[in-house]
Amino acid sequence: VFHEPGHSLTLPYALDSVIEIDEIRIPMMVLLSGRDVEARLPPVNQQLMIRPGCMAYGLASDRWLVVYSSGDGGIEEFASSTVFATDHSDAWASLRVWGGKAVDVLQSLCSVDIHPSLFGHGACFQSRLGASPVLVSRPMDGNAFDRFDILMPRSSARAVLEDIHDAAARV
Question: In three state form, how does the secondary structure of 116-151 look?
């Protein structure tokens, strides 16, 4: 049984000693399009901490996704005459996957090579996990190469969670 995002019973999808999964969250998100003339946003396939609680992901040369882990921020923070901002908070969900087999589990679902030598801290990419579109990033916060943040359309959250769980059972 799948539980809605934020429900503590989402956690049984983790498999001891294989992977651990944080419950799915609905973060505050803003999609930006345009030209970043102030160069304060990251390049494609990179992430940048704008400030504590505010991470930006480079999706394309003229498109970024900004995620707020706290309620501090919003559309007006980045909107300008060269950047158009749209609130996407209701459309996305996030989860964190980590553990000794996290790389193997995610690699079995994704065509992008996520070996730590190629996909290091601060990197991100858009792809699919199973059949679901996702944005995968490796958090910038230190040494653990077995931790990933996954952003997905909210409508795909159940499928992503079930695909990860099923893949973990096979690893």
Answer: CCCCCCCEEEEEEECCEEEEEECCCCCCCCCEEEEE
pLDDT tens, per residue, the chain with 171 residues: 344 444 544 544 555 556 777 767 778 899 999 987 667 889 999 999 988 888 999 999 999 999 987 667 778 888 788 888 999 988 888 888 888 888 999 999 999 999 888 888 889 999 999 899 999 999 876 666 688 999 999 888 888 988 988 888 888
Is 133 strand, coil or helix?
A: strand
- Give the N- to C-terminal CA distance of the chain in Å, as an integer: 22
State how far the alpha carbon of 101 is from the alpha carbons of 10, 35, 147, in Å.
19, 39, 10
Distance, in Å, from the CA atom of 8 to the CA atom of 142, rounded to the nearest integer, reads: 26
**Residue 121 near residue 142, CB atoms below 8 Å:** yes
Place of tokens 């040494």: 143
Contacts of 61 (CB under 8 A, 6+ apart): 43, 44
Q: What does the radius of gyration of the chain's CA atoms come to, in whole angstroms? A: 16
CA-based nearest residue to 83, from 107, 61, 104: 61
What global pTM score does this model have?
Answer: 0.84
Give Dmax (Cα) for the chain: 50
H/E stretch holding 168: helix 157-170
Contact 15/166 with Cβ under 8 angstroms? no
